[in-house]
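Quick question, first post here. What does this chain look like in 3D?
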Amino acid sequence: MSKVKELFGVYCDDSADLKQAVSQQRCPYSGKKCYKTRKSDPGTAIGTCTVQYQANNIIICPNRLLENNQIFFDCLHLLTLHEPGNELYVVPEVSIPGGNVDYFLISAKDGKVKDFIGIELQTMDTTGTVWPERQRLLHEHGFPVERADIENGKSFWMNWKMTAKTILVQMHHKSETFEYLNKHLVLIIQKPFFEYINREFQFSHIQGVRTGDSVHIHAYDFNEMSNRLKLSLSARISTDSDGIAKSLGLQAQTKVELEALIAALEQKLSDEYRLSVI
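> Answer (accepted):
Ran it through. Tokens below.
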């Protein structure tokens, strides 16, 4: 049985109807065509959102975290300057000196930024290839596929260590920027990854949640419920740039002027990015 649990957003149980999903190759969370394509065939989207790995359903595409905008609503309390009447926006891919930030959740009024937080999404990077499992799934659901793909013995693994080190280093670089601005940066991850970084890195000094901390980590359960997989907030912790540095033994120098960042955000305020309930 294939280890692919979700394809193009469809939960792949025995009764799943994949015909439309495979035909359209559309990501229901981004509203666009799935960006994961084969290097040898750019016209074919791979579409694997979630796979089963070591008894867990592991998300391998960050867009899967966007379901119903729940991760953004779970960050609203960190917009400490937000007031009733302000509008909410979710703006993707804003560049700061420490690198790109996946999303900014913004409170604005009359086209002017009143408050903001940065939000980073991190799902698991894989090594090897998921393609044979994807093809086996299609074969199980009656799609014609190449026999060589079905019989391909290649597999995939979770790259826990590299994924963890990469995102924690990035969080440290970016956290100093947000700390300098007296703003918050939130990392969104899945519970098994949260448990890994707590086990393998120096996280014993990070306990509980303080709203004033610059860095917040939100960990999500991802369990089968009513014939679907559902995200639910499981754990939260917070720290500052020094806390992340202590975990990694790193230092960074990242400064940015508040006015420059606000100007970049205000240019992107539009109805396209307005936060709404799906």
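Residues 251-256 have pLDDT under 50 and may be disordered.
Residues 1-53+125-158 form one domain.
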